[in-house]
Amino acid sequence: MTVSLKTQKILWGKAAARCAMPECRRQLVEDISETDDPTLVGENCHIVAEKDGGPRSDPTMSVDARNRYANLVLLCNVDHKIIDDNETVWTVDRLKALKVEHEAWVEQSLGLDQAKMRDDTLYADYVDEWVRLAHLDEWTAWSSWVLGSGQPRIWVKVDEDLTVLRRWLLGRIWPGRYASLERAFGNFGRVLQDFQGILHDHLEPRGKGDELFTRKFYQIEQWDPPLYAKLAAQYDFHVDIVSDLMLELTRAANLVCDEVRRHIAHNFRLVEGNVIVQRGPDMELRWVEFVPRYSLEEAAAQTPYPGLPQFYDDRDDRDWAIGKGHPRT
What we know:
By secondary structure, the protein is mainly alpha-helical. The protein has helices at residues 5-14, 63-66, 77-85, 92-110, 114-133, 139-147, 156-170, 179-199, 225-263, 296-300, 308-314; strands at residues 42-46, 72-76, 153-155, 203-206, 211-214, 277-279, 288-290. The longest helix is centred in the C-terminal third of the chain and has 39 residues, at 225-263.
């Protein structure tokens, strides 16, 4: 369990991105819109330790509660260490009081852009839900089922959540503050709609019902060589376009992450890194991992994903492609 992006935005916003120690109150991060420097000297300090046995730990508190806003105070990395090394002095009650006093000082001395904070918090809430429904933390694992073995497969739970995500994205009311971030989410939604639409054409449950497999529709009961050849070619094309849409969906996910780092939190998923896909095994039983991304020119377009008809033409010009051309009847 980690601190959600929404919680971080509230914490950093109410603290004005400054250390809560009165003798310090240093600015903890540069505005990402004004510099490319990703250096961060501020830390989310847990009042009650995140892990059992840590400073001021309380085994009776749930992990979820430990990572909520109420249990966090913003500190520079130096004061964070001083406080954790002196937990008998810096008790839970004293840290809670420190947080209240600092946020009151920010309100009285610096003021807060309440409208921006409200918008940023809403964006952060949307990002957290997108990460969850897109299974971003399991992306490499579930996408490898789509891309591997020449028979696209997907976990039922992932497919169900992607369906929810597609409809959820359509229904969002956006603040209108960061146009490029909103376009990135819109682009992801358009790719997702076509990805699922094509993938679902030939999916069927298999085994215990927790997986969906692409049906090998070229397997016919009565041998008919011309029909078999036609269906086999259609199947191969279907597998290739599903794979290319999976790669495009990954590009769209990486674009969303870039825009979140640009506008909402410059350290968003820096530990996890880029969204990666895995394909294989090849003839030598090797798996290949790579990072599909839009080029700078593609990412700057109003709609990086041009829609399925144009994507048939454009896909082999992307950084990675499996197939090319339009479907043949």
